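Hi U.,

Before I forget, here's the chain from the pilot set. I'm dumping it here mostly so it's searchable later in email.
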Amino acid sequence: MKLFFSLFLLNLITLLNLQAQQIELSGQIIANGQVEGIHVINKTAYRYATTDQNGFFIIEAKPSDSLYFSSIQYIPKTIVLSAQNISTKSITVTLSESINALDEVLIGTVLTGDLNSDIGNSDAKRPIDFYDLGIPGYTGPRMNLTERRLYDADHGVLYTGLGLNVNKLLNRITGRTKMLKEHVKLDKDKQTIRRIKEIIAPLYFH
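Structure:
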C-alpha cells in the first residue's frame, strides 16, 4: 500500500512539473493563401508570435494552453494544446479563408453621370442659399482660421486718401504677413501628412 501511494505521489509530482514547465512549441499554418504575418497568441501564458513566409512559428507553451490564431484574411481559430503537442513540441494548424459577404444592394433612380440631370431626377431638395435671397456670397473654397487671418492681413480695409492700403503695408513691414504665410504652409503640410496616414495606415495596420 505504501509502495502504491509512493508511486502515485511520484507520478502526480511529475505530471504537475510537466504542466508547469513551458517549452518552445514549433508550429506551422496551413492555408490556401498567404501564411506570413499571422498572429499566434498564447492566451493562457500571454505569449505572442507571428508566422514567417512559410507559415512557421515558435511560441512558448505548456499543456492546456490556448493558442489563438488571427489574421484579417482567415477565420480566427483557438486550439487547446494537448499532451501530445507538448511531447512532440509541434503543432500543425489549418486555417479557413474568411469570405466577407456583401449586403443586398437596392437600386433606385438610375444615375446618368450628368450632375445637373441627376439632381433634377432625384428627390433631394437643394438647401436655400444666398442666390435665392439675392445677396452676394462667397463661392470659393472655405478658408480655415489661419487662411482667414492671412487674408485679413493682406486685404485690409484701412485706406488713406491716396488709396493706399495701410493695413496691408503695416503687416508686410512688421513681418506679420510673412509669418501668417508660413503658418498657412505648415497647415497644408499637416493636412497632406494626415491624408497620407489615412491612406497608408489601413494597408499596414489591421
